[in-house]
C-alpha cells in the first residue's frame, strides 16, 4: 500500500484510468475484468476490479465490523441494504476500500483523480450507513497490485487495454454488462477483438 503514498507525490500516467482485460488474458482471476487504477509509479501499480461481486452483503459486513447491530440492519435505507460489495482483487482480501466522489473527505481520504477519492477507514462505512456519505461510492474487499514494471509488461504483451475512466461507468451498478459497455464506449467490437487475438 506504500505505492499509494508515493503516487501522491509522482502521479503515474495510468492514474484514474480503466484497465480492460483482453480476451487473451491468461490469469483467470482477471478474465473479463475492468480495473480502476488508483496508483501508478515506477514502484508499481494498484487498482480495484469494479465488475466482480463478493458474496457478502453490505449489512452483514457492517455487523461484522461492529458498525451496526444485527437488529439495526432492517432499519437501513433500501439502497444501503443493496449497496454492493465488490471483489477488488486478490491482494489483502479482508481489507475494505471505498472509491467515492470528492464530496466526502476525512483525514485519511486520498485523492485519486480530479473527481475520485479513496478512503479505507471505517468512518466512511459509518457515514454511508447513516446516509451521510459521498453521493457516489463503491466498496471493494481486496485490491489488485503489480510490482515495478509488471503492469507495463502486461500491457505490452496485449493483456490489457487502457482508457480514461468516466464517473458514470465507474460508479454505475450494472455489473453484468460493464465489460461489454466499456468496450463499446471506446469503439471496440468484442467479436473482432477475440478473432484478432485468437491467432496471435
TrEMBL record:
It comes from the Bacteria. Pfam families: DUF179. InterPro entries: AlgH-like. GO terms for cellular component: cytosol. SUPFAM superfamilies: VC0467-like. HAMAP family: UPF0301. Belongs to the UPF0301 (AlgH) family. This is UPF0301 protein C5748_00745. It comes from Phyllobacterium phragmitis.
Amino acid at each position: 500500500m506504500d505505492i499509494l503514498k508515493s503516487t501522491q507525490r509522482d502521479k503515474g500516467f495510468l492514474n484514474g484510468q480503466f484497465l480492460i482485460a483482453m480476451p487473451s488474458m491468461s490469469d483467470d482471476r482477471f478474465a473479463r475484468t475492468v480495473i480502476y487504477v488508483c496508483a501508478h509509479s515506477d514502484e508499481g501499480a494498484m487498482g480495484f476490479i469494479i465488475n466482480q461481486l463478493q458474496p457478502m452483503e453490505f449489512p452483514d459486513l457492517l455487523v461484522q465490523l461492529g458498525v451496526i447491530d444485527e437488529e439495526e440492519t432492517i432499519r437501513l435505507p433500501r439502497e444501503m441494504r443493496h449497496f454492493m460489495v465488490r471483489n477488488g482483487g486478490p491482494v489483502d482480501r479482508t481489507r475494505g476500500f471505498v472509491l467515492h466522489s470528492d464530496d466526502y473527505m476525512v483525514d485519511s481520504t486520498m485523492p485519486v483523480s480530479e473527481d475520485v477519492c479513496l478512503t479505507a477507514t471505517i468512518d466512511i462505512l459509518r457515514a454511508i450507513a447513516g446516509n451521510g456519505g459521498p453521493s457516489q461510492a463503491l466498496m471493494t474487499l481486496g485490491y489488485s497490485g503489480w510490482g515495478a514494471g509488471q503492469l507495463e509488461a502486461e500491457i505490452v504483451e496485449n493483456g490489457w487495454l487502457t482508457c480514461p475512466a468516466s464517473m458514470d461507468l465507474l460508479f454505475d451498478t450494472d455489473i453484468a454488462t460493464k465489460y461489454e459497455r466499456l468496450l463499446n464506449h471506446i469503439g471496440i467490437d468484442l467479436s473482432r477483438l477475440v478473432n484478432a487475438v485468437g491467432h496471435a
